[in-house]
Amino acid sequence: MASIDNTDHEKSAGPQGQAGDEAEVRAATEAALLDAFGGILGMVETTVPGLIFVVIYTVNHDIKSSALAALGLSVVLGVVRLARRDTLKHAFSGVFGIAFGALFAMMSGNAKNFYLPGMLYTLGLGVAYVVSALAGFPLLGLILGPVFKENLSWRTRNPGRLRAYTKASWAWGLILLAKSAILFPLYWWGNATQLGWVKVALGIPPFLLSVYLTWIFLVKAPAPIDVIAEMEAAEQERKAEKERAKADETSAGQTVK
Q1: What's the predicted TM-score (pTM) here?
Q2: Domain range holding 65?
Q3: Which residues contact 218 (CB under 8 A, 6 or more apart)?
Q4: Does the record's keyword annotation contain Phosphoprotein (predicted)?
């Protein structure tokens, strides 16, 4: 009877345990995506400075004042990042991108060049995602692997996550390339105001779609292998073996005496 009761208890607890594991995976995936891509503030950093630029330029058609206003806002957002003790990557990447665009626009005298560095980055990133997925070494796995503490274990030990990272990298690549296919014709044949407003409109929705698809692929994938925990456990085991060996030597010495 005892064995039957234990079996019944395990069966009843099983679905609850599985649901708990799924909830943990979902929570860990959400946290990892927010950490890797900068969260809500990251979306603000990539969209609002460009919005400030196009609004001011639409009003006064002055490249310098528009660029400096966008750069000033970007610096403020970077300071907010530092005050919140976010990673330096998130704090400075937006500032450098806006600074480069502002400098390029003012030096060239062409307001459209404010957006060109970001457009080239988007195009290059889209190509990198696609090429890495084709090569079997998806870029998204390289980005998120350390965040999940799985490093590269997804590539050799966890084929389900390799497939998920490959699908997600394809999604990011195709979405970014589609965005580039809209923006570059405007850069060549449109005016700065048209390009600015379209770029602002295409700032957040493609990003959210990419993040959502990534989340869908990863929550359905096997759980990550925590190689950091494995390394720590192995190190603890080595220390325990040394302590046991030392204890055996001490015991053997006392026996001889």
Answers
A1: 0.80
A2: 36-114
A3: 29, 144, 161, 164, 165, 168
A4: no
- 180 and 109 together in one domain: no
Q: How many domains does the chain have?
A: 2
The answer to whether residue 103 sits within a structural domain is yes
Cα–Cα distance for residue pair 174/151, rounded to 1 Å: 25
Q: Reduce the DSSP state of residue 257 to 3 states and report it.
A: coil
Q: What is the pLDDT along the chain (257 residues), one digit of tens a residue?
A: 334 344 444 444 444 545 555 666 677 777 777 766 777 777 788 888 999 999 999 999 999 999 999 999 988 888 887 887 776 666 677 788 899 999 999 999 999 999 999 999 999 999 999 999 999 999 999 989 888 889 899 999 999 999 999 999 999 999 999 999 999 999 999 999 999 999 999 988 998 899 899 999 998 899 888 888 878 787 788 887 777 767 666 666 666 55
Rounded to whole angstroms, the Cα distance separating 158 from 152 reads 9
